[in-house]
Every structure is written in C-alpha cells, then in structure tokens.
Fold:
Amino acid sequence: MSTPSPTRMAASLPAEYRARLMATAREVGFPENYRIFEEGQSADHFWIIRSGTVTLDFRVPGGRKAVIDSLGFGELVGWSWLYRPYVWQLGAEAMTPVRAHEFDAEVVRMMMDADPSFGSAMGHWIGRVLSHRLHATRVRLLDLYAPHGSGS
Structure:
C-alpha cells in the first residue's frame, strides 16, 4: 500500500479549504506534447491534475530542456503564481493528454489575503511543493553535471 504524496492537494489542505479552492476552478484539457507554460513567461494561472502526466523542465546550456519531475493525479502544476514577480521558474509540458482544474492566480491570492487561515494553509502546501521541486531539481542537476564515479 502506497501513501499519498505530501505534495498532493488532498494530503495537504483540509477539506474546508480544498472545497473553497475548488469552487473557483474551471476544467481544462491539454493534448499530448502541449506546452502549458515556458520558463520566464507570466504566471497568472495554476493547475491541479485530474488525469494524465505533466513534466516540469528547465533550459540548460545549448538550448535543450532537462526534465526534472513528472506530475500526476492531484498534483499542483505551477507555484510561481504565488511569488512576485509572478514569472514561471520552470517550463511544463503535457506528456499525455491531461485533464486539469485551472485556477486564476489573482483570484486565489485575493482569497488568501482575505482569510489568513486559508492563506496559511495554502502557503504551507505550496512550501511543501517547493521543497519537493527543489530537491528534484538538485537530484536532476547532479545526474546531469556531477562527475560519475568521483565520490562527489
């Protein structure tokens, strides 16, 4: 039996706050290989995956992209919408057809400001997501650039 990922919304937000957040969602779909957003673009929406797989990537020297994480059911796509200057720090692509709940970042930020308890719960959830993504990025960078077999 597997335990739910602590970065998934269901494992991180109390039911009351999940319901409040979901009341603002709209359903969207992305076809396979669709670029959801690019690193450096304005971050004005975010998504929670209903079905499918989204990969997160970043640009590396030479213009290619390195995949750092794959996201699935219940996971948050995008956190840059919460922090100024609201610019994506990574890119995201639908690796399979994806169904997702889409959220307007400005609306959610206003909700967080209006209710400090809701804002705190959202902040803690996104903090866990950020911690997980930072670790995944570190591991991927070591895979790409650390000298293998050097004991580093």
User: Anything to note?
Assistant: The mean pLDDT is 90. The first strand starts at residue 26 and ends at 30. Residues 59 and 141 are 12 Å apart (CA to CA).
